[in-house]
Design a protein that fits this description.
With 289 residues, the protein is α+β, with helices and mostly antiparallel strands. The chain has twelve helices and eleven strands.
């Protein structure tokens, strides 16, 4: 089975794909129970690796791929569709958020796993998958806030255009960059969209209290060491605003206004007032001092 699919340009395979890769001499398709036995044997022999129930890749493909990080990004787009990479993974990648890592116990095979969980946004229910390549976390968002929300998409396939400026012809920010992996495309949120998604999803933002919200967004600690929970929730912001440009801020503002979210309007108001009458170079100098 695997010697047939190794010649295919596909990276991930469903049961249907595997059935087609193992034709019967009579021309008939492989019976379901026979196919299950073949898959079970290939998994036991570690010729096939399971990404989730019903989705596989060959161990040869995984072992010989030099760029495991990019492979994992592509796998994230295939494991749960539709989805795009966003939230902590993107913020950490662009040094906007302090890096976090999974413990070895989070992955069934820590020797294979990419340490940093890949976080994505999806239109499907929130879900987490753990497999040989790492941890994949998907968070649901309403369709109006999904990337390219002014374009057409369905639950099985993104049908959205892209250009080098990450904007449509009418200058609307799409909120993502298109990436290619061995001829296959997937989407990663821009810094601004990832930050929007991250703050929008944070349930502990004190949006009704401007002072507390400032402390959460910026480096204004209010530590209460007598309480462990208070200590954790009131630690100074781990967002590195110095790595957020003026153009990033403009795009972030666009996503906030598009969202019509009262919570995000308050967040935007606090950020804008904090940096009122400051040029971004001065902003960076202040934050880096």
């Amino acid at each position: 089975m695997t010697h047939l699919i190794n010649t295919n340009s596909q990276i991930c395979f469903t049961k249907k794909d595997l059935r087609l890769s193992f034709p019967m001499t009579t021309g008939a398709s492989v019976p379901a129970n026979t196919l299950d036995s073949l898959i079970k044997r290939a998994l036991k022999q570690e010729k096939l690796l399971q990404l989730k129930k019903g989705l596989y890749m060959t161990s040869t493909c995984y072992i010989h791929e030099p760029d495991k990080a990019k492979l994992s990004e592509y796998l994230a787009s295939q494991i749960y569709q539709p989805s795009y990479i966003s939230l902590e993974y993107v913020l950490e990648k662009y040094h906007l958020l302090s890096r976090t890592t999974s413990s070895p116990s989070e992955c069934p095979d820590a020797s294979f796993a990419i340490i940093t969980p890949i976080t994505s946004i999806t239109l499907k229910p929130t879900h987490t998958f753990k497999n040989f390549s790492g941890t994949y976390r998907y968070t649901n968002i309403k369709s109006a806030l999904y990337i390219g929300n002014n374009q057409t998409h369905d639950e099985n396939n993104l049908r959205i255009s892209h250009d080098d400026e990450m904007k449509t012809e009418n200058n609307t920010y799409l909120g993502y960059k298109e990436h290619t992996f061995h001829g296959h495309t997937y989407h990663i949120a821009t810094k601004a969209k990832a930050l929007f998604d991250y703050l929008y999803m944070k349930s502990d933002l004190k949006r009704r209290n401007t002072t507390h919200l400032r402390r959460q967004l910026f480096k204004e600690p209010n530590l209460q060491p007598n309480s462990e929970s208070n200590f954790r929730s009131n630690l100074k912001s781990n967002l590195h605003w110095a790595n957020f440009s003026e153009e990033d801020f403009k795009e972030f503002e666009h996503h906030v206004w598009q969202s019509k979210s009262k919570k995000m309007m308050r967040v935007l108001d606090v950020i804008a007032k904090y940096f009122a009458n400051k040029k971004f170079d001065a902003w960076k100098k202040e934050l880096l001092s």
